Amino acid sequence: MPTTSALTPRSTASIAGEFARLRREKKARHRDIAAELAISEGELIAAHAGLSLADGALLGAERLQSDWPAIIAALEPLGEVMALTRNASCVHEKTGVYRKTSHNNHVGLVLGGEIDLRVFYRQWVHGFAVREMGEKEVQHSLQFFDAAGHAVHKIFMKPQSDLAAYEALVTRFADEDQQAGIVVTEPAPAPAELPDAQIDVAGFRAAWADLRDTHEFFTLLKKYSVSRLQGLRLAEARFVQQLDKACVLDLLNDAARENVSIMAFVGNAGMIQIHSGPVQKIAVMGPWINILDARFNLHLREDHVASAWVVKKPTVDGLVTSVELFDEKGETIVMFFGERKPGAHELCEWRNVVDKAQQEYELCAA
Predict the structure, then answer these.
(1) What's the pTM?
(2) How far apart are CA 326 and CA 335, in angstroms?
(3) Phi/psi class of residue 46: alpha, beta or left (left: φ > 0; alpha: ψ in -120 to 50)?
(4) Are 242 and 326 in contact, with CB atoms under 8 Å apart?
(5) What is the mean pLDDT, run by run of 10 residues, along the chain of 366 residues?
(6) How far apart are CA 266 and CA 289, in angstroms?
(7) Which end of the chain is least crowded, N or C, by CB within 10 Å?
(8) Per DSSP, what are the bridge partners of residue 241?
(9) How far apart are CA 193 and CA 172, in angstroms?
């Protein structure tokens, strides 16, 4: 697999120089700087491969070997870190320890409590250990990107993290190739939806009613060749209702006020990251709705939400209710559930919060 870029050394040096300028002048984030330079975030980081803070660079990156499951399995000695997964509209940040890691072929799990991940390693192509000079100290992280250079997952050291263990991990997994730059490829376009008239709607609805586990839902969509959003449109009204897309702020405020433990799923093609527990501090900053708790942060671009849905799935433990938000392309932004374990019924408190959101939507629509 090629790792070095067609970029010349001068062009990667130019990227590094522009990064330093924009970081100092605007205090801009990596994603925003990459967008301004018309490159991917992965290309931005890869342009700093081989650079050292000791030589005056603002950021240095060390390319990692592509043994992703082994890297994730080696994270526990680092202690508490911050895991970050995002898509174009939502950022999910969770502090904890990477424990109980496993993988089967290209699918991995991290089930260590606070850090709860579903990993799709087939999408992982580039990884770097990143060291960046902050205002007061050096920030250390591990950052992973897909073939297009889009970030799939990042891991940031916290003050309580074991920095010696981080450095040992980087030494262990450092790649021999440390040349600056990467080759990126455009992501394949999403497959077009089949027309509704070509879908076996009656069979799809009957299979939905026969669900026994929420994990069967993906198989259901695949069997009937429907996208997630198309499936919601075609479902029976008893299982799916549309909400006002502005409902999420009230939903989160109600969950915080009632101390309802929720689950928040945020993902991209290479990772799904999950928070389970109560939420407390909800704040709006411009277009962003934020959860700003001590060990869990979520940042949601409310203006990116094109539709919102209440979705009910039958299981052996009764109905499981989610609130799912989608962007204008029909991609999932975030999904909220009431916290529950297999074998347990859904929290009545969560249903009450969702019912309130539905009632408010129905009143506004009347």
Answers:
(1) 0.93
(2) 9
(3) alpha
(4) no
(5) 43 91 87 94 96 91 98 98 98 98 96 95 98 92 97 98 98 96 88 94 98 94 96 97 92 96 97 97 97 98 97 95 96 96 87 88 54
(6) 14
(7) C
(8) 310
(9) 45
